[in-house]
Design goal:
Blueprint: E1 4-6, E2 12-13, E3 49-51
Antiparallel strand pairs: 1-2, 1-3
Length: 52
Protein backbone atom coordinates (compact mmCIF):
# COMPACT_ATOMS: atom_id res chain seq x y z
CA UNK A 1 0.00 0.00 0.00
CA UNK A 2 1.18 3.48 -0.86
CA UNK A 3 2.05 6.14 1.68
CA UNK A 4 0.73 9.68 1.19
CA UNK A 5 2.39 12.93 2.30
CA UNK A 6 0.60 16.09 3.40
CA UNK A 7 1.85 18.89 1.15
CA UNK A 8 1.25 21.46 3.90
CA UNK A 9 3.01 20.02 6.95
CA UNK A 10 4.80 16.87 5.75
CA UNK A 11 2.76 14.35 7.78
CA UNK A 12 2.97 10.90 6.20
CA UNK A 13 -0.14 8.71 6.18
CA UNK A 14 1.09 5.13 6.36
CA UNK A 15 -1.70 2.61 5.70
CA UNK A 16 0.14 0.00 7.76
CA UNK A 17 -0.27 2.25 10.82
CA UNK A 18 -3.62 3.87 10.02
CA UNK A 19 -4.64 6.85 12.16
CA UNK A 20 -5.81 5.37 15.46
CA UNK A 21 -6.47 8.80 17.01
CA UNK A 22 -9.06 9.42 14.27
CA UNK A 23 -10.52 5.91 14.43
CA UNK A 24 -8.74 4.68 11.28
CA UNK A 25 -7.63 1.07 11.69
CA UNK A 26 -4.20 -0.16 10.58
CA UNK A 27 -4.38 -1.59 7.08
CA UNK A 28 -6.76 1.12 5.76
CA UNK A 29 -5.65 2.32 2.29
CA UNK A 30 -5.61 6.08 1.71
CA UNK A 31 -8.37 5.72 -0.91
CA UNK A 32 -10.64 4.16 1.72
CA UNK A 33 -10.30 7.02 4.22
CA UNK A 34 -13.58 8.89 4.79
CA UNK A 35 -14.00 11.99 2.61
CA UNK A 36 -14.11 14.15 5.76
CA UNK A 37 -10.83 12.73 7.13
CA UNK A 38 -8.29 15.46 7.82
CA UNK A 39 -4.55 15.56 8.45
CA UNK A 40 -4.10 14.89 12.18
CA UNK A 41 -1.28 17.45 12.36
CA UNK A 42 -2.52 20.49 10.42
CA UNK A 43 -6.16 19.68 9.66
CA UNK A 44 -6.20 19.94 5.85
CA UNK A 45 -8.29 17.56 3.75
CA UNK A 46 -7.33 14.56 1.65
CA UNK A 47 -6.91 16.76 -1.43
CA UNK A 48 -3.74 18.23 0.10
CA UNK A 49 -1.99 14.82 0.08
CA UNK A 50 0.18 13.33 -2.65
CA UNK A 51 1.51 9.81 -3.09
CA UNK A 52 4.94 9.47 -1.49
Amino acid sequence: MDKYVCQICGYVYDPAEGDPDSGIAPGTPFADLPEDWACPVCGVGKDSFEKA
